[in-house]
Write a structure and sequence with these properties.
Helices cover about 45% and strands about 15% of the residues. By secondary structure, it is α+β, with helices and mostly antiparallel strands.
Length: about 140
């Protein structure tokens, strides 16, 4: 019922496809459309990839999901309520970690103050080496 209310607040009907896509995104955390489709296919094999793409776009347009670019491939989606973090991608093992958005405050402020450039650090990944891979070296 909470999702129905949530979608209605955004001016959308709660269709079974929207509910499945939103639930899959929330459950998976960071997921490609293909990951979302695979998750949905576990219980609803009749939902095709184009339906997933259309619903991701709709849910993003109303602010319930957001996409991020975590690599050279396509976009990765996550629930909009998770917008308060940075995406940290390990170049060695490929893990995706999170850091609080405030960790980039000095960087964002410097770009704004010195160059007049406003940036959205939630939209891209920061590449490096995770703590586990550093410890192994």
């Amino acid at each position: 019922m909470a999702q129905q209310h949530e979608l209605r607040e955004k001016g959308l009907r709660l269709t079974p496809q929207r509910e499945l896509v939103l639930n899959a995104v929330r459950e998976l955390g960071h997921a490609t459309p293909e990951d979302v489709a695979a998750k949905i296919h576990e219980t609803h094999p009749g939902i095709n990839l184009s339906t997933v793409y259309r619903n991701l776009e709709t849910l993003e347009n109303v602010g319930l999901v957001q996409h991020t670019h975590l690599g050279h491939g396509g976009a990765t989606y996550h629930a909009a309520e998770e917008l308060t973090h940075l995406h940290l991608v390990c170049e060695n093992c490929g893990s995706v970690g999170d850091a609080p958005i405030d960790a980039a405050a000095n960087f964002v402020n410097t770009l704004s103050d010195d160059y007049g450039f406003k940036t959205d650090v939630t939209h891209f990944a920061i590449y490096g080496t995770c703590a586990e891979c550093v410890a192994k070296k």
